[in-house]
Specification:
It is a single chain. With about 475 residues, the chain is of the alpha/beta class. About 50% of the residues lie in helices and about 15% in strands. The chain is built from 14 helices and twelve strands. Helix 7 links the parallel strand 5 and strand 6. Helix 1 packs antiparallel against helix 4, helix 2 packs across helix 3 and helix 8 runs antiparallel to helix 10. It is flat, with a radius of gyration of 30 Å. The N terminus is likely disordered.
């Protein structure tokens, strides 16, 4: 019955795709021929030849989309992965269609129509899929279109999986029972789910309970039993998903990828790759340039005040650690007397620090001493948003006393950051700041950066911990 339901929804989705393709194709035709965005010089081609081409497009898109797995249930995949697959499949199918049109030499097809169609179809197909998934979510939450699962392993990993599946009823996955290697636990309930049998009973239980999915959640010390479980399943037509017990080792942006058919599990990574690097760099350059232009008169005044009120240079360079542990010279307006650390050595600034000049103390209170760091941003040493850079002399101690401290260097250092806008500046909890820095890296997005910039501007530059 479940396979029939799956086929029904697959057919329904195929019809929805065909309808969306038709709308996109005809919209592209009218947009090119009648919108006058770009004038038509060779006369308007007849709609008929474009309608005829739809006959070839329906099977082509169906085959390509099926090849890209876009008609699979995708109960545990993300929306972003589906959008990416739609974009790739649509691009591939459109290129094939353009190639096929060379066979119709008696007709000339507009390249702009293909371009409009490609853009419109991707957008509308993504919207159609989103609506379709919301429809499935609704009916699954009502108890329809369910899949039934067994969870192999009764320890924390398996219990966490059951808890998450209960929170996401829209997936339509019901856990029928656990399997355990301990015969004494058979018949007992764990997290409200009964232990139905031992690992050796899995094939009989799959048949008895009409199981569709088997989740293997063996703890790290029991992975040697994976082969036994798979052999006991045999050739039963079930979906098998393995949850590796590696979460204790995942420290930053864990992920799963594939290389030549081999699954690779990433335990530690940076979010800055591909287009993310370009988008963040563009934001840095644009924002830093605007700030430097606006604050140029203020910086000139500050430079004069620093020069006139104390001996020494206007600017102060200090070695800091940035992305991937690389060292750079951070630029600030000088706020302390020259040779301030000759007697004390490297120490953190404290409230009422006697080493500060009068104008320097004021600059620190309102954070204006940090304006020159926008030149560091333009140079590429820093970003507008990121973990605040620290001095290597302090880092030697921090990395030994604070777990995961060095992971903050997987992101470019910033002028402002999530920890700072949440009040964690100066002489505040180092552990708490690291927690906020790692949260920022783990959840980084351009939207998150813009939020932090807005909070920095909204909260102002005066902070009780800035001294």
């Amino acid at each position: 019955m479940l396979k029939k339901h799956s086929k029904f929804f697959e057919s329904l989705l195929l019809l929805a795709d065909w309808f969306t393709l038709s709308v996109s194709w005809i919209t592209a035709y009218y947009l090119r021929c009648y919108s006058e965005i770009i004038p038509v010089y060779k006369g308007i081609p007849p709609l008929k030849i474009y309608i005829i081409l739809l006959i070839f497009m329906f099977p082509l898109w169906g085959i390509v989309f099926k090849t890209f797995g876009l008609y699979q249930p995708r109960r545990v995949s993300t929306k972003l992965s589906e959008i990416a697959d739609i974009a790739k499949a649509s691009t591939f199918a459109t290129l094939i269609l353009i190639s096929l049109t060379f066979l119709f030499r008696q007709d000339e097809f507009s390249r702009l129509i293909f371009l409009y169609f490609w853009c419109i179809s991707i957008i509308l197909l993504c919207l159609t899929r989103a609506l379709f998934r919301e429809f499935l979510r609704f009916i699954r939450q009502k108890g329809y279109n369910q899949r039934y699962a067994l969870v192999v392993g009764t320890e924390k990993l398996g219990q966490d999986l059951v808890g998450k599946l209960r929170k996401h009823l829209e997936l339509g996955i019901q856990v029928t029972g656990f399997l355990s290697d301990d015969s004494n636990s058979v018949g007992k309930k764990i997290s409200g789910i009964e232990v139905l049998g031992k690992f050796s009973d899995i094939r009989d239980l799959i048949i008895k309970h009409a199981i569709d999915i088997v989740f293997i959640t063996l703890p790290f010390h029991s992975h040697h039993q994976l082969k036994e479980v798979l052999e006991n399943i045999g050739d039963e037509m079930v979906t098998i998903m393995v949850l590796p017990d590696l979460f204790d080792f995942v420290t930053l942006r864990g992920n799963v990828s594939e290389f030549e058919g081999m699954p690779l599990i990433g335990l530690r990574d940076t979010p800055l790759y591909g287009w993310n690097v370009i988008f963040k760099r563009v934001l840095d350059i644009v924002f830093a340039t605007i700030v430097l232009i606006i604050t140029a008169p203020i910086m000139v005044i500050i430079a004069l005040l620093v020069k006139l009120t104390s001996k020494g240079p206007v600017f102060y360079k200090q070695e800091r650690m940035g992305l991937d542990g690389r060292l750079f010279n951070l630029l600030k307006f000088r706020t302390m007397c020259i040779n301030a650390e000759d007697q004390t050595g490297p120490v953190w600034a404290k409230k009422g620090d006697p080493r500060c000049t009068k104008i320097g103390r004021l600059l620190r209170m309102v954070s204006l001493d940090e304006l020159p760091q926008f030149f560091n941003v333009l140079k590429g040493d820093m970003s507008i948003v990121g973990p605040r850079p620290e001095r290597p002399v302090f880092i030697k101690n921090f990395r030994n006393t604070t777990p995961k401290y060095m992971l903050r260097h997987k992101m470019k250092a910033g002028i402002t950051g999530w920890a700072q806008v949440c009040g964690l500046r100066g002489d505040t909890s180092l552990e708490k700041r690291i927690e906020y820095d790692l949260y920022y890296i783990e959840h980084w997005s351009m939207k998150f950066d813009l939020k932090i910039i807005w909070l920095t501007l909204w909260n102002g530059f005066v902070n009780k911990h800035a001294y």
